[in-house]
Amino acid sequence: MSHLYGLILAGGRGTRFWPRSRRAQAKQVLKFFGDRSLIQQTVDRLRPVLPPERIWILTNDYLRAEIVKQLPEVPKKQILAEPAQRNTAPAIGLAAHILQSIDPEAVMGVFPADHVIGKPRDYIKLIKPAFKAAKEGKIVVLGIEPRWAETGYGYIEFPKGPGAGGQRPVTSFREKPDAATAAAFLQAGNFYWNAGMFFWKTSVLLGALRQFLPKTATLIAGLPPFSSRQFGAKMVEVFPRCENISIDYAVLEKARNVVGIPAGDIGWNDVGSWNAVYELQHRDANGNALRADTLVVDSGGNYVDGAKSKLIALLGVHDLIVVDTPDALLIADRGRAQQVGDLVKQLEKQKRDDLL
Amino acid sequence: MSHLYGLILAGGRGTRFWPRSRRAQAKQVLKFFGDRSLIQQTVDRLRPVLPPERIWILTNDYLRAEIVKQLPEVPKKQILAEPAQRNTAPAIGLAAHILQSIDPEAVMGVFPADHVIGKPRDYIKLIKPAFKAAKEGKIVVLGIEPRWAETGYGYIEFPKGPGAGGQRPVTSFREKPDAATAAAFLQAGNFYWNAGMFFWKTSVLLGALRQFLPKTATLIAGLPPFSSRQFGAKMVEVFPRCENISIDYAVLEKARNVVGIPAGDIGWNDVGSWNAVYELQHRDANGNALRADTLVVDSGGNYVDGAKSKLIALLGVHDLIVVDTPDALLIADRGRAQQVGDLVKQLEKQKRDDLL
């Protein structure tokens, strides 16, 4: 298919991966699995549909240099730093404007930079029809079959009926549910996780923005084409004035022509915490996942992440997250991995910029 | 009192303090409490009785340079490296020979380099009569009133009678007891811990060695005086041929003229493991002893030892020993602190000389 483009959203911080994650080394550029970072793996897995020269990346000033370094195959001018954090609607609108100015027939897919997909071939089998439906003028969203009653994700409701597969209208979008609602969703079988993967023609998306988010749409429409000399300066001026809102709230929940592709098991994982990294790793007979030079005695269920040049010895300890870096060491109960981000908030309060 | 000398035995390794302790940074030269190492504190506390120029130190080749650096007040020629590890009897015999060759009236006290004494003034009040009794020709041993039924120390049995204080004949020396025996000792009240502190005239000790350990006594007696040019070379030749035996077995258990000074609470602690270091530290309201730049959330009972230039964050963890050094990190359950030495044995087997 021609006219296809990928937008990778790579502006997040991933503070739950401190002390490995820092402002200039956020989650998406870290190598948790093998020797390719999450964003490198994202580009790799899209390759059967989107060659690197069709990939565009939106990130921030802290991260851009590292991403440029990690992805030499992606044209440098297509890796852009957002002048301000404005959530997904303005970012996606900006990218749609850019692509529209290059190729009025552009069809774009939006992909998070920091997820894992364990079965990339099955994934590609979903991406192709998603792009096809988008080319036909629809707004397309990928749904992930839920594996537990997660309260941390939004859900996509489909009409009751067959399981995963095919393409179906979306009945509704649901915000992060409470535990009882999440359990009911799981039980019902027609609610899927919203993994932030969307497909549309840039003309369709820009039209939807004009309809549902006119202020931001007008600001973005006022930008010159990407090829213009003034583009960079104008973007820095205009972008911060856009509304701070997600594409889900701004467009998806309101648009009429939304269809979903309910995905079966594609091994999707949003790698939400060190505990997720632990669970995705190979573990030894005692349930230890060891990414360091280690000496382990009577210890189990631990995740250890350190430098190859340093020995980490464990004696009689269990279910710990141990992440050692040159200037900071984290030792956390594995069940508390979600709260690592709170440590970063404390460091921010203490103005420990050296550690952020 | 004149003719008094102190011998500090500083040849141990203290592997239970890995990764802080290394061959060239053994327990006795580490700074666990304040900014003076254990051997510096040993010299400091003896000062009211023994000025530094009366202090002699036996150590090994790995440690000598560090001890010379830490104790500039002790004459460098009095800090000697044993040519081989031969336990306490040959070491003490060698020191007695040296002192005898310098001062035939010498009275020597023997002190471990790596203990803590919380009440140094009370301690000095015991040292003075100990030296006095030694000067009168007795072999004197200090006993420490037991605080629990410890199975890791030898015991000194006194005649039943009053508690601590004064000077009394020794009924017997007892090797490390089993738990039931240790409990009986504690219950009986007339058994004291043998802390390895002894006092005698060098002439008396050398006489006892001739009687009870004649081979080693003859070897040592054959050495030239300390002032001789040949002393160093001869010592290197002779010392390794001495018997590998402790002074307790070789002399104390057999000699007739042994008296003991049963000490009350002088705050003695042999600092046997990281857990002892933890217990001797100031702890916060959650029972954490923190010797590092730390960020602590919902964690208690931990000992943390690190560099000031590195943040150590604890989240939801309890009763851990955390010791961070540039090339090795230890995370151990505090109840397993005694077994840290076993980790070092494993490293020795793996020939990880860089970490020993």
Task: Describe it.
By secondary structure, chain A is α/β, with parallel strands linked by helices. In chain A, 30% of the residues lie in helices and 23% in strands. The mean pLDDT of chain A is 95. The relative contact order of chain A is 0.15. Chain A has two domains: 4-269, Spore Coat Polysaccharide Biosynthesis Protein SpsA, Chain A, CATH 3.90.550; 274-355, no CATH class. Chain A binds chain B through residues 19, 295, 297-298, 306, 309-317, 320, 322, 324, 326-333, 335-336, 339-340, 342-343, 346-347, 352, 355, and chain B through 19, 295, 297-298, 306, 309-317, 320, 322, 324, 326-333, 335-336, 339-340, 342-343, 346-347, 352, 355.
The oligomeric status of these chains comes to homodimer
Distance between the termini of chain A: 43 Å
Low-confidence segments of chain A, given as residue ranges, are: none
CATH architecture term of the largest domain in chain A: Alpha-Beta Complex
CATH superfamily of the largest domain in chain A: Spore Coat Polysaccharide Biosynthesis Protein SpsA, Chain A
List how many beta strands of chain A DSSP finds: 18
User: Which strand-content bin applies to the residues of chain A?
Assistant: 15-25%
Radius of gyration of chain A: 21 Å
The ordered H/E elements of chain A are EHEHEHEEHEEEEHEHHHHEEHEEEEEEH
Total number of domains of chain A: 2
Query: What is the CATH fold-level name of the largest domain in chain A?
Result: Spore Coat Polysaccharide Biosynthesis Protein SpsA, Chain A
| Greatest contact between two chains | A-B, 35 and 35 residues
Count of separate DSSP helical elements of chain A: 11
The portion of residues assigned to helices of chain A is 25-40%
Q: Give the averaged pLDDT of chain A, no decimals.
A: 95
